[in-house]
Design goal:
mainly beta; Lipocalin; 3-stranded antiparallel sheet; 1 helix; 10 strands
Length: about 150
């Protein structure tokens, strides 16, 4: 199910890798750990009836962090398990447009675990997609990317 997004003409819109970023932030003890992914794919499809759907994927082997020694650890089964789960995926189930506010709801799959998430994003203006950084809260424990106790 998707919401009507009448401000966007029918068509398929792809990410702009130059002006877009797939990043994450995780609170760890007293600090916030930040990272990003070097590649990702995002596609917004709007049909003739105004129904919109957003699908995005990120290859986990493109993770970028300040400490290069941490990259291998993030690829391990303890975190992303990049060998068994090489991709993070988001697929919208609803895109709600209310004035200048856009709410994205969809399924986020990390490490084989899918969870419904909701994110607020800027609206589309004058039939153009404004560069957006949706913000969503997804527990690392619920997504199975927290360090294991084993």
């Amino acid at each position: 199910m998707t919401a009507t997004a009448t401000a966007i003409p029918a068509g398929t819109y792809k990410d702009d890798g130059v002006h877009s970023t797939a990043a994450f932030a995780v609170k760890h003890m007293l600090a916030t750990f930040r990272g990003a992914f070097g590649r990702f794919n995002a596609e917004l499809t709007v049909d003739e009836n105004g129904q919109a759907k957003l699908v995005g994927t990120v290859p986990v082997d493109t993770v970028i962090v300040k400490d290069e020694n941490l990259v291998a650890h993030l690829q391990s089964p303890e975190f992303f398990d990049g060998e068994q789960y090489p991709e993070i995926r988001f697929e919208s189930t609803e895109i709600a447009v209310d004035g200048q506010s856009v709410t994205l709801t969809g399924d986020l799959t990390i490490k084989g675990h899918t969870e419904r998430v909701t994110a607020q994003a800027p609206s589309w203006v004058r039939s153009r997609i404004r560069s957006a950084t949706p913000s969503s809260a997804c527990s690392s424990r619920r997504s199975s990317i927290a360090p294991s106790s084993a």
